[in-house]
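Students often ask why we bother encoding 3D structure as a string. The short answer is that it lets us treat folding as translation between two languages. Here is a chain of 103 residues written in the first language.
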Amino acid sequence: MSDFDLIAVDQMARLRADISSSNMDEICSTLSELRYSLDDETFQAKMVPLLEAAEKNLYQLVECFLQNHVALSSQLVLKATMNASYQTLEVILTNRMGYQRAG
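And here it is in the second language, the structure alphabet:
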């Protein structure tokens, strides 16, 4: 496993924990770190749009909490979308690492 893979696995584990605990500051930080640790152009092409979408959802969720006037159902939808983004990122990362091991 390359250094990149070890870093990415650690960041994905942190992201899972951050999303589970709704720790907004840490989610932002981890998404940012994960984006900038990508070292492969093809991988970046797949991951960066997903990371950007996850960040957009995160900022919308933070705004909902700050304004406190958006229905709880909307907040739950945004959190579910973030979880789906995380799961998609995890699948791509897992597939990439499996492909590298096979190659």
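Translate back mentally: The mean pLDDT is 67. Keep this in mind for the problem set.
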